[in-house]
Amino acid sequence: MSLTKLGCTLSGLRLGQSYTLSLWNLLRPEQPLLKFNLGDDQEYYTVPLQDLLSNNLGIFHVELKTSITLPQSLGWWSNIQENKNLILPDELDNDYCFNILGNEALEAFCDFFKEINLNIDCEHIRERISSLQSCEGYLPDWLDQSLLLKKMQNILPSSIPSITASPDSSPPKPHNLTYSLDIRNNTPAIRKAFCKRFSDQLKKAGLGQSIQLIKDPVLRDLLRVQIENQQYLPRLKAILTELESALHTSIGLTEWR
After folding, report:
1. Are both 118 and 207 inside the same structural domain?
2. Residue 125 lies inside a defined structural domain of this protein
3. Which residues is 178 bridged to in the sheet?
4. Which of 204, 199, 189 is nearest to 249 (CA)?
5. pLDDT for 134-193, tens place per residue?
6. Cα 21 to Cα 25: distance, rounded to the nearest angstrom
7. Sheet of 45-47: strands edge to edge?
8. b/e 67-90 (16+ beta carbons within 10 angstroms → b)
9. Dmax over Cα atoms in the chain, in whole Å?
10. Which residue spans within the chain are E strands per DSSP?
11. Contact 32/238 with Cβ under 8 angstroms?
């Protein structure tokens, strides 16, 4: 699955399962999600976002949803190709938008965002920040993604109520033990070879119960790994490094959110 200048390409979809593409526009954060419903009769889809959103300028976070699974982040995408001599529609807040599009100061962005008086879903913001950290999607070269990441991170402190620690405070959350695998050139043949070699490696090392491969029931090209505890993470990374050499590809490992 990938985001390009023209739109979104989806693969590995399951026949009979309906999908929805949802987009959140950072330039209009108070607006409801834009949604495009996909049919259930194709394994591959090309969604021409550039055409569909010709009247909606923005910097969008894109998710794929189904009725039976959690939303899957596809990354960030924008249909604004140039920021020079850009004229924004009247409904957009020019000061706020030009702060983002002009790579302007972080402090001013925080002031502009407070004026929107938005009820933030902190968990969704964290997911969008994680996607931006991973450089997922398609954003124009002139946009300073490092600065944009700092602006997104500064949304959270003003939206999370301060909590005074007490003896009854909940214990810290444990480390995430589930990771998603990003296999470059994730074709059915590469995916099949990876699954077989990965399972063989686990069996050979006696790690079949401690490290488990999870195949998504809806998206066939989505693979996850679950480890028993954090001590097995170095072993997992070592196995993936060996498989990268054996399969002549790259394999990314990110926390599953």
Report:
1. no
2. yes
3. 226
4. 189
5. 777 889 888 998 999 998 888 775 444 433 334 444 444 445 588 888 887 778 888 889
6. 13
7. 2-3, 8-10, 45-47
8. eeeeebbbbbbbbbeeeeeeeeee
9. 63
10. 2-3, 8-10, 19-25, 34-38, 45-47, 59-65, 72-78, 137-138, 178-183, 211-215, 223-227, 251-255
11. no
Whether the model pTM is above 0.90: no
Reference 78, options 35, 16, 142, 32; nearest CA is 142
The residue with tokens 């959103």 is: 53
E-state strands within 48-119: 59-65, 72-78
* Burial profile 184-221: b = 16 or more Cβ within 10 angstroms, e = fewer: eebeeebbeebeeebeebbeeeebeebbeeeeeebbbb
Residue 194 lies in a domain: yes
Domain assignment present for residue 159? The answer is no
DSSP state of 27: T
Residue-range definition of the domain harbouring residue 119: 2-153
Q: Which of 141, 161, 158 is nearest to 106 (CA)?
A: 158
How big, in percent rounded to 5, are the helix, strand and coil portions of the chain?
A: 30, 20, 45
| Sequence-separated (6 or more) residues with CB below 8 Å from residue 76 | 3, 59, 60, 61, 62, 128, 131, 132, 136, 137, 138, 139
Tell me the C-alpha distance between 79 and 138, whole Å. 9
Interior CA angle at 239 toward 252 and 197, to 5°? 95
Count of domains for the chain: 2
Structure confidence by residue, pLDDT tens digits, 77-95: 998 888 777 777 777 778 8
